[in-house]
């Protein structure tokens, strides 16, 4: 027996207590107070210790248990005839290779069939039928004993009450809450002042354990089955045959599965679904890899809690926990103050995150987020880090409530909040930070496209007093001598910048309109408004009712346009830009050019890496030729333009029969 230090014993004890605590909240309270990835890493660390010191393993260790049963639950406890095991999790391709090597070594074969299935993020359920009639629905519980939730199971439409064959059978599946239903429920809960569900899994689990079955029916849960217990009783030799048989009986089976023969096909399937899963109406956090032929199951065997003939691959984590250290305030071009969380650095989806948006102060109050909290952080749409919620159960009492600021952190002027709006704003037009954001927007590629005038240089020009409003950009030529004396700024750089500024005077009316930064008026609406109004004078004189008649303009946009043009400062800026020579009229001759009519009425989507252009450049060419850019593949799409590595959009377009063209073929069209 190895000598075990007090430090290791203490760490093992702490790991078990932590995992037990997280299990209790996850399985008994339907709450996640740690991310799946962090939980799995703690479990793997404990497993490593127990492998090194096997004499410390006992039946109560969380490594030996599948889940946690809520002993205080009012639901009847039922023992599973066949234990409901969980799957071993992995986050790396190498682990899958090791799994494959181990399987092939045990069964002494060069290759084997696997079935790859999506791993749905919901609540596991066992469904028992007698003579073809649903008899009982039981949760996983601790794997040996679950909770009888039959009354609630009966409220789920996708679970058949009667099968198409008069047989005795047990199947296992996953109860989920579709994303559209999840969003609807959370919206209703916000309107009622109730706490929102953190994610669809918690919502599904919490719903299935409701004592009032009417609530279950209202929330429209769904269920996919994935496993047939004692399949040999039905003369089935493969798992893939079981899936088809369960479908034939009337069960809902996820059709996104595939039979493969080697590790390369597994890797390709993983890469495909890492992107493709975002198009689904339910959450999937990975893939399940199962040996297809049942004849090998006993030979491969089981651990205490997992089969050795299957493994779950988890997609890179998008939600983790970390500490919120402090809050700073970001000022937008319209003066909106956005609170930003400064975090203890944490890795999310492959990048280190130190800051995350808190959206607004009402959101902070609603979620009760405090400085010093352990918080869940995720990347919204895989791009923008945001704080999801605090882990209230981990509070120490030293956390501080967030106070809404009253003074702008940039200009020190008093902040303003409209009773009808969520946003807190700085209304000072001379606010340096607000001006900086306005200028950045004005010179951006989709607006006036002034190259060389980046954020750092804009800040320097504002600090030096050369830029006090947008119009001052066009007066920089008069400051040539002063600018040439600035540190790290050569004559050639100045000349290039001034050339780009002068070139921007030729930008079309729709680009100029977009560059003004009217709230809620993006590229598409700027095009729409410029086409309709023909010139800025007419647009400024339009009533709200007239604006609402324009296709694509709603109440919020119309009100924003009216409010923008009523502002005396904005009207003054527009007048000065006119005098400078910017184009505030729609050029009819461009619209009448026969070449530009070739793409009118056609929609395009660009995907993949192009040979000669950036995607944004090709989108501009499409718009200049009368076409319209869209963001997703649907039956309304006319053409998909593809480059290298086009991803899931290519396959979806193929399925829908949408014409797929390359860069060269597109240019032949115009």
From TrEMBL:
Signal peptide: none annotated. Zn(2+) binds at residues 408, 411, 426, 431. One of its GO terms (cellular component) is cytosol. NAD(+) binds at residues 36-40, 86-87, 117, 140, 174, 290, 314. The keyword NAD applies. Keywords: DNA damage, DNA repair, DNA replication, Ligase, Magnesium, Manganese, Metal-binding, NAD, Zinc. Its EC number is 6.5.1.2. GO terms for molecular function: DNA binding; DNA ligase (NAD+) activity; metal ion binding. GO terms for biological process: DNA repair; DNA replication. Its cofactor is Mg(2+); Mn(2+). Residues 594-670 form the BRCT domain. It holds the Pfam family HHH_2. The keyword Zinc applies. Belongs to the NAD-dependent DNA ligase family. LigA subfamily. DNA ligase that catalyzes the formation of phosphodiester linkages between 5'-phosphoryl and 3'-hydroxyl groups in double-stranded DNA using NAD as a coenzyme and as the energy source for the reaction. It is essential for DNA replication and repair of damaged DNA. This is DNA ligase. It comes from Haliovirga abyssi.
């Amino acid at each position: 027996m190895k000598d075990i230090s007090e430090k290791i014993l203490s760490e093992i004890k702490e790991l078990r207590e932590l995992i037990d605590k997280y299990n209790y909240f996850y399985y008994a309270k339907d709450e996640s107070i740690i991310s799946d990835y962090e939980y799995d890493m703690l479990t793997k660390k404990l497993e490593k210790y127990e492998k090194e010191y096997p004499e410390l393993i006992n039946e109560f260790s969380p490594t030996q248990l599948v889940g946690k049963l809520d002993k205080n639950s009012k639901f009847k406890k039922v023992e599973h005839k066949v234990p409901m095991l969980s799957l071993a999790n992995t986050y790396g391709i190498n682990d899958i290779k090791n799994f494959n090597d181990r399987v092939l070594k045990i069964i002494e074969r060069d290759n084997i069939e696997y079935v790859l299935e999506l791993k749905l993020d919901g609540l596991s359920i066992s469904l028992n039928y007698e003579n073809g009639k649903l008899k009982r629905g039981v949760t996983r519980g601790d794997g040996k004993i679950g909770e009888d939730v039959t009354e609630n199971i009966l409220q789920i439409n996708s679970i058949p009450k009667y099968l198409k064959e008069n047989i005795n059978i047990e199947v296992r599946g996953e109860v989920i809450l579709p994303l559209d239903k999840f969003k609807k429920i959370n919206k209703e809960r916000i309107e009622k002042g109730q706490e929102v569900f953190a994610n669809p899994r918690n919502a599904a689990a919490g719903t299935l354990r409701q004592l009032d079955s009417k609530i279950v029916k209202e929330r429209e849960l769904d269920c996919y089955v994935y496993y047939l217990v004692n399949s040999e009783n039905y003369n089935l030799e493969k798992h893939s045959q079981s899936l088809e048989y369960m479908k034939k009986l009337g069960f809902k089976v996820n059709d996104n599965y595939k039979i493969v023969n080697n590790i390369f096909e597994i890797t390709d399937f993983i890469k495909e679904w890492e992107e493709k899963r975002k198009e689904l109406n339910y959450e999937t956090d990975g893939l399940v890899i199962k040996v297809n032929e049942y004849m090998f199951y006993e030979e491969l065997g089981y651990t205490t809690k997992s089969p050795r003939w299957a493994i779950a691959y988890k997609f890179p984590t998008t939600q983790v926990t970390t500490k919120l250290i402090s809050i700073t305030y970001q000022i937008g071009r319209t003066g909106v103050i956005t609170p930003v969380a400064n975090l203890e650095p944490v890795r999310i989806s492959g990048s280190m995150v130190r800051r995350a948006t808190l959206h607004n102060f009402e959101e902070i109050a609603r979620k009760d987020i405090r400085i010093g909290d352990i918080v869940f952080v995720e990347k919204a749409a895989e791009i923008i880090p945001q704080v999801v919620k605090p882990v209230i159960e981990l509070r120490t009492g030293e956390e501080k409530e967030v106070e809404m600021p009253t003074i702008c952190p940039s200009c020190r002027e008093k902040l303003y909040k409209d009773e009808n709006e969520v946003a807190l704003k700085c209304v000072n037009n001379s606010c340096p930070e607000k001006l900086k954001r306005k200028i950045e927007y004005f010179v951006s590629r989709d607006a006036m496209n002034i190259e060389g005038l980046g954020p750092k240089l804009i800040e320097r020009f504002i600090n030096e007093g050369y830029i006090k409003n947008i119009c001052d950009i066009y007066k920089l030529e008069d400051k040539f001598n002063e600018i040439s004396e600035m540190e790290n700024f050569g004559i050639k750089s100045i000349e290039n910048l001034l050339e780009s500024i002068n070139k921007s005077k030729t930008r079309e009316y729709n680009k100029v309109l977009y560059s003004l930064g009217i709230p809620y008026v993006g590229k598409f609406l700027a095009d729409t408004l410029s086409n309709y109004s023909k010139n800025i004078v007419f647009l400024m004189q339009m009533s709200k009712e007239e604006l609402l008649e324009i296709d694509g303009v709603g109440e919020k946009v119309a009100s924003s346009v009216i409010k923008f043009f009523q502002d005396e400062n904005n009207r003054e800026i527009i007048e000065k830009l006119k005098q400078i020579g910017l184009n505030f009229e729609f050029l009819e001759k461009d619209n009448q050019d026969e070449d530009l009519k070739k793409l009118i009425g056609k929609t395009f989507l660009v995907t993949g890496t192009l040979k000669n252009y950036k995607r944004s450049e090709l989108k501009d060419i499409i718009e200049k030729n009368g076409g319209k850019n869209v963001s997703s593949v649907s039956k309304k799409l006319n053409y998909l333009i593809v480059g290298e590595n086009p991803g899931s959009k290519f396959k979806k377009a193929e399925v829908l029969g949408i014409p797929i063209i390359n860069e060269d073929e597109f240019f032949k069209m115009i």
